[in-house]
Amino acid sequence: MQKLIYILDDEKEIRKSLRVILEDEDYSVEDFANGKALLKALAKERPSLVLLDVWVGKEDGLTILDECKKLYSSLPIVMISGHGTIELAVSATKKGAIDFLEKPLSIEKVIHTIESALEKTKDNEIPEFQLEVDEILGESSSIKRVKFAIFQAAQTNARVFIFGENGTGKELTARAIHQNSKRKNEPYIEFNCAAVPEEILEQELFGIENTSNLEVSEVKIGKWESAQNGTLFLDEVCDLPLSIQSKVLKVILEQKLERIGGKEPISVDVRILAATNSNVEEAIREGRFREDLYYALSVIPLELPPLRERNLDIPLLAEYYLNKSILKNNLTPKTIDREGLDALTNHFWPGNVRELGNILERLSILVPGDIIRAKDVKEALHGFKKANEMVARGDLKHAKEEFERQYIIKTLQICEGNVTRTSKALGIERTHLYRKLRSLNISVEQLNEG
């Protein structure tokens, strides 16, 4: 994964030159012309390193340095100055700067300083923290960053927007934020925006009142109200119809909702977590998702890494899912040999952790002996060969679609074409599965005939 470098300098040419140099060295770069923009970005994401000018217009870089350190005490910061003095360098070092560069900047010096700074801090980029409830498996640096983000988000009431491909653990992450928050003893309500028919979506979310009977008022509480004082998780939020999106935004901003048929607004104190596997920028550009709702939900954006970017965790995850399946299906114990683990580790995993879990369940059931070998793994993964070939060609979009298609077909075959059983096996609502079958052009009838 690319290291992210932030640059703060009021000179446009300096920012441009540094960006070119660092991107040539395979760093990801964001640059800022003022301290306010930098601090706003830092509040959402922790970079690997910051290059910070001593004077940014009329802003004092040392003051900005203090603010950066308040957010991330261990964040490596390299100061830049066109008129540096020993006193200034000493002062910056005392405040936590890891090094000091003087203008005009030398390319070699900049690269060497950044490499040295990252090498010194790579083992302590993430400060010590402890989650009270931690059900997320993994020890890779990318998953540790996710856990730290959960820890940080859980200390606040801020809204969190969780991004990630299918199967990366968005539901697990949302639950972890709630379980580690001050609202942990209050309700936690999950609402899949893609799984509820549009005609009843509003009443499911906001509730409904029937006041036609003057003596008795019939009231059905919606999911939002059910989460009072707790947390509401809006999964697949980009699938909300635009008419509902506007009402969701209104409730978020006003902290009040109106049931369908209701006459009085109801005050609500609910923390909102949202998630999607869609391309939000594309959805906004195409007019399918409101930009103002995105900004309201994304106070803290949290992106989950795909399994292919944390393959060091695969042996641990494989052992967990294998033992889970053995226990669940009352099977004799099995182990995976070294070559089998290598085959799992080298797979692209377009379906991420969910795919891994299902493959391990398949292996636990179908392998007759007590050792799962590489050939067993490769046979279990054979159905996804076409998707992997697309990935090799760089066609990720169609590879993901092909994987999803093959995955659903295989699961339907295992469940003998029963859509209800298939939806349960896939962990999605039946109505959501029907939408997938239509969009991927899968005919259950033809499968059954075959």
From TrEMBL:
Database matches in Pfam families: AAA_lid_14, HTH_8, Response_reg, Sigma54_activat
Key words of the record: ATP-binding, Nucleotide-binding, Phosphoprotein, Transcription, Transcription regulation, Two-component regulatory system
GO biological process: phosphorelay signal transduction system; regulation of DNA-templated transcription
Annotated Gene3D superfamilies: 1.10.8.60, 3.40.50.2300, Homeodomain-like, P-loop containing nucleotide triphosphate hydrolases
Cross-referenced SMART domains: AAA, REC
Superkingdom per UniProt: Bacteria
Transcription among keywords: yes
Modified residues (4-aspartylphosphate): 53
InterPro entries on file: AAA+_ATPase (IPR003593), AAA_lid_NorR (IPR058031), CheY-like_superfamily (IPR011006), Homeodomain-like_sf (IPR009057), HTH_Fis (IPR002197), P-loop_NTPase (IPR027417), Sig_transdc_resp-reg_receiver (IPR001789), Sigma_54_int (IPR002078)
Ranges of residues in domain Response regulatory: 4-118
Molecular function (Gene Ontology), one example: sequence-specific DNA binding
Ranges of residues in domain Sigma-54 factor interaction: 136-365
Protein's recorded name: Sigma-54-dependent Fis family transcriptional regulator
Protein species of origin: Leptospira brenneri
